[in-house]
C-alpha cells in the first residue's frame, strides 16, 4: 500500500483535495481514486481534486476533476492552485498557468487572489434564465427568494434539461436587493449545491450586468463568503478583462493510503 501526500484547501467554502504532481505521483486515468478521495465518508472529502503540474510554457498547469472525476475548469480551485504554487515556491505574486479552458493570469494581492477569466462572448436567454460560458457552462436565473429557493431540486432540472444536454450545465439562482447580490449554485460533477463557485459568480456578475445594468466591479455573496468580479464591456454580450477575486485557504495537509 502506498501513501499520497495531499493538501486540503477551501475557497469561500468550495473545498478541494490538492496534490503536487510535478513528479507524476498521482496514478493516471484513475477515476475511482479521484472519486474516493473526494468522498466525504470514505476519503478526504472535497468538491473536486486538483493536480498541480509542470508546464513547458507557463508557471504551472492546474488539472481539475469534479468529485465525480469529470474534468473541468474551476475558478475557486484556480485561486487555491495559485496559493499552493506560491506556498511551494513555484511562483511569485504574479503568474500564468494553464487550465482546462486555456491560459490564465493570476496575481496575489493582500491575501486576495485575482484570476483573469476567459473573455465571454454571448449571453443567451434560455429556459427562463441566461446561459453563458465563463470557462465552463453556466445557467443563471433571477429569483425572488434566494435563501428559501429549492436549489437542488430546480438546479437538477436545469442541469439535465434537454436544452443543455449532453454536456449539461451548472445552475445559479440570484437576486439583487438594495445593491446586494446573493447567489446559490447547483454544480454538475458534484451533483449537489456547493457553497460557492468562481466561474459561477463570474456568470452571475455578467448576467446581471446585461439584465440589471450592474457596473464593474460586482460583489457577490455566496453561502461560503464574498467574491468580486471585475470586467470591461466591449459591446453587447462581449466582456473582456474579466477578473474573479477572492481568498484561498489551506485548511490542512496530510497523507492518505492509495
Can you give a write-up of this model?
It is a single chain. The protein has 4 helices and 19 strands. The chain has 258 residues and is of the alpha+beta class. The chain has 2 domains: 3-117 and 248-257, Diaminopimelate Epimerase, Chain A, domain 1, CATH 3.10.310; 120-243, Diaminopimelate Epimerase, Chain A, domain 1 (Roll). The protein has a 19-stranded mixed sheet that branches. Helix 3 links the parallel strand 12 and strand 13 (170-177). The longest helix is centred in the C-terminal third of the chain and has 14 residues, at 198-211. It starts with a strand and ends with a strand.
Q: At the fourth CATH level, what is the homologous superfamily of the largest domain?
A: Diaminopimelate Epimerase, Chain A, domain 1
Q: How many discrete domains?
A: 2
Classification by helices and strands = alpha+beta
| Low-confidence blocks of residues | none
Number of DSSP E strands: 19
Helicity level: 10-25%
Total of helices: 4
How far is it from the N-terminal to the C-terminal residue, by CA? 6 Å
Q: Please trace the helix and strand order, writing H or E for each element.
A: EEHEEEHEEEEEEEHEEEHEEEE
Task: Kindly report the average pLDDT value.
Answer: 97
Biggest sheet, open or closed, and with what strands and sense? 19 strands, mixed
Which overall shape is indicated by the principal axes computed on the Cα atoms?
globular
Classified by CATH, the class of the largest domain is Alpha Beta
- At CATH level 3, the topology of the largest domain is Diaminopimelate Epimerase, Chain A, domain 1
Q: Approximately how much beta-strand content do the residues carry? A: over 45%
CATH architecture heading of the largest domain: Roll
In oligomeric terms, what are we looking at? single chain
Query: Mind telling me the C-alpha Rg?
Result: 17 Å
